[in-house]
Write a structure and sequence with these properties.
There is one protein chain. By secondary structure, the protein is an alpha/beta fold. Helix 1 crosses helix 11, helix 6 crosses helix 11 and helix 9 packs across helix 11. The protein starts with a helix and ends with a helix. The mean pLDDT is about 95.
Length: about 425
């Protein structure tokens, strides 16, 4: 079952090269389960037992199920839709030295070396003129789904420091080649924007804006002598997105727990979350308030529901690297295929404390879900996630968890097959607790 489920997750990741595609695919799954889409710009009429979702910027989504008017609080799991990658600048085609290259910049904390010498494509969204829309503008998903670019390495003969600590310049070294130079009609027809327009089914001159990213074309795979690993782009954090969404959907088929069940997928975690669709926005806070008011509950009910709520911040964790064990805590270093990871940090880059940890540990032990602990090496500050950022707006008991993986922020990452089952099981148990 684990391998079969792993292939299902990898298929979803392959179909989701950008945050916009993550949200679109999540909407399709929710639609198939009878959820109703809402718009923030419209008046809501929520009902007991109702299942709903709402998006923001087409790159963040929150889905929820209401048990009854007198619900006790909220059970929330939050993850993120974005991953580090090159992002195309506004005017992004450069014709120089006999090549057309794409002018790109870093989105998030990329591990640069793995992006060289791989077939790449372009995906994201474009904004186009549309007289049928009230604003006169429509957002359209795009995925060229074609090998169109490569970031070529400089040969070792010309870069003798390549293997001994060469420092990359993103502007100089990381611009991908897409074609040779030329001014013919054929060349203009095959410009990136022409290909984007064709793939989107729109006229090129109707395009008013874009959010386009590069992604690697290599498909996700199950690998290892016993098929114990998965390799894919964007495991951080789509592994958590799809596993927790599955657990959420599984939970709504069960007897209701008396809590509003809520799954959140925020954009822009990799660049600090300080956007209108990020965890540092009012998206979740406003939604909780609207649910309370729409069901005719008092402000006192709102505050008591807050006090009875719990959130899980689900973002992948670092698995022990066999060649660099000195970078990890000498005692608590997670390994792949040994369960979900509960993350702690004294500087509160993770939200887990004794109270929230006790809740997670008890749930795991009661439901036979394997878990392990991650703390940073005391001389390594480590990273952060969206939990503490979201907590500054929605201040409830929260724990940070994730799945152990290697090569975080690489173009191609590695994780364990068995762990995805553990996260799905944990998520279902959490929503039903």
């Amino acid at each position: 079952m684990s391998k079969e489920y792993a292939n299902d997750i990898l298929s979803l990741i392959d179909k989701s090269p950008t945050a916009f595609h993550v949200v679109e695919n999540a909407k399709s799954i929710l639609d198939s389960q009878g959820f109703t889409g809402l718009k923030e710009s419209e008046v809501w009429k929520l009902e007991e037992g109702g299942k709903y979702y709402v998006t923001r910027n087409d790159s963040s989504i929150i889905a929820f199920m209401i048990p009854n008017k007198d619900y006790k609080g909220f059970r929330i799991i939050a993850s993120h839709s974005d991953s580090p990658c090159p992002k195309l600048k506004e005017d992004y085609e450069m014709d120089k030295c006999g090549y057309v290259r794409l002018n790109v910049e870093k989105y998030g904390g990329m591990l640069l070396a793995p992006w060289f010498d791989r077939p790449l494509s372009v995906a994201g969204r474009i904004l186009v003129r549309d007289e049928n829309e009230a604003s006169g503008i429509k957002s359209v998903l795009v995925n060229l789904d074609k090998d169109i670019a490569v970031i070529p390495s400089l040969a070792i003969h010309m870069n003798r420091d390549a293997n001994t600590g060469y420092s990359y310049s993103f502007q100089k070294d990381m611009l991908p080649i897409v074609s040779t130079s030329g001014d013919s009609a054929k060349d203009k027809k095959n410009s990136i924007m022409s290909l984007v327009a064709e793939a989107s089914g729109v006229e090129k001159n109707s395009i008013l804006g874009n959010d386009l990213f590069l992604y690697i074309r290599e498909k996700g795979k199950v690998w290892g002598t016993s098929d114990e690993f998965i390799g894919s782009a964007r495991l951080d954090d789509q592994e958590c997105v799809w596993c927790t969404l599955d657990g959420f959907i599984d939970s709504i088929k069960s007897e209701n727990s008396g809590y509003v069940k809520m799954i959140c997928v925020f954009d822009n975690e990799e660049v600090g979350s300080r956007t209108k669709q990020g965890a540092d926005s009012n998206f979740l806070e406003n939604l909780i308030s609207r649910i309370n008011d729409n069901l005719g509950r008092s402000r006192e009910d709102y505050y008591t529901a807050y006090a009875n709520s719990f959130m899980i911040s689900a973002d992948n964790a670092h698995a022990l690297h066999p060649a660099h064990s000195d970078k990890y805590d000498p005692v608590q270093s997670p390994k792949m295929n040994e369960g979900i990871v509960l993350k702690f940090s004294a500087r509160q880059s993770y939200t887990t404390d004794a109270v929230s940890a006790a809740f997670v540990k008890k749930l795991c032990e009661d439901e036979s879900v394997p878990y392990q602990i991650f703390v940073n090496h005391s001389d390594q500050p480590g990273g952060s996630t969206l939990g503490n950022i979201s907590n500054s707006h929605v201040s409830i008991n929260t724990a940070d968890i994730g799945l152990p993986q290697l090569a975080m922020h690489s173009a191609y990452e590695t994780a364990g097959v068995e762990d995805i089952d553990s996260l799905r099981s944990f998520s279902k148990a959490f929503f039903n607790a």
